Amino acid sequence: MIQPFAGRDFISMRDFDRGQVEDLLARCRQFEGTSKPLLNGRVLGSLFFEPSTRTRLSFESAMKRLGGQTLGFTDAATSSTEKGESLWDTIRVVEGYCDIIVIRHPAEGSARLAAEATTRPVINGGDGSNQHPTQTLLDLYTIEKRAGRLHDLKIAFVGDLKYGRTVHSLIKSLCLFPNEFYMVYPPSLGLPSYFLEDLQEQGIQSTDFENVEDLPEDLDILYLTRIQRERFPDPIEYERVRNSYQLTPDSVKRFSDKLTILHPLPRTTELDPDLDSHPGTAYFDQAHNGVVVRKTLLALLLGAG
Ligand code: CP
After folding, report:
1. How far is the centre of ligand 1, averaged over its atoms, from the C-alpha of 51 (Å)?
2. What CATH topology corresponds to 13-131+289-301?
3. Element housing 293 (H / E)
4. Do 133-287 and 13-131+289-301 have the same topology in CATH?
5. Which atom of ligand 1 approaches the CA of 264 most closely?
6. What is the pLDDT of residues 156-196, one digit of tens each?
7. How far is the CA of 2 from the centre of ligand 1 (A)?
8. What is the pTM of this model?
């Protein structure tokens, strides 16, 4: 059987065309409920230079459920980075301890650099404000499950579109399909100009608003994000925009029954816990789908899927 993903890195959704995205999602569906020991004897190097709950633990769960093992660190301060070791050297060393590496790092481009340092497959677990491609795969998987398709949807991105890497990754993939896009953000937190230029080159357009109330009632997907406090160079600017949005059961009443509410989590004040029991919410399913998606990726990249 042809294994087009074996040995590859998973750095950015820009590297995958529509056919490959559809193929990956089809493989994820096949992995639902699978816990065969496909990765027995394999080791995942899990290098988290930034905090994480979902990404790190769902990778660990995925690896263990397939019979593999993990090693790594959850805090760069406990690694030799603290003594001045470069990322390049860290990767060159860790590649000798494992078969595949997942890295989360605050610097944009760090995952690509890590991939250049090693012949082991490298997975980007989030690089600064740039990309978070495994989150995108689980977002797409969740959207497809809820809406039944990835095309001809009315999709709104709400919140911090400037620093939110989950948004950057997901838009790139949803643009591969014919969809209608709405962007809702405070004036200072729109998509970065390089990203907008990229979308313009692809002929992708969106309708932009500052308020959720302006979105069409027949919206299919509302993808809400946290204002990314840790990315703001100026804390005063963060304080100014931190409470820009608060989605509540009342504020989503005007939307139709088909609305799905997604959020990559963690949340702060933008997502009222009273929405958790709303039939349109899918953010905990979304987080749980991280395991099947990451099981699939680990198996495919290691040539075992
Ligand atoms: N969605 C997400 O990336 O969550 P963590 O930061 O907890 O991994």
Report:
1. 8
2. Rossmann fold (3.40.50)
3. helix 283-301
4. yes
5. 1
6. 999 999 999 999 999 999 999 999 999 999 999 999 999 99
7. 32
8. 0.95
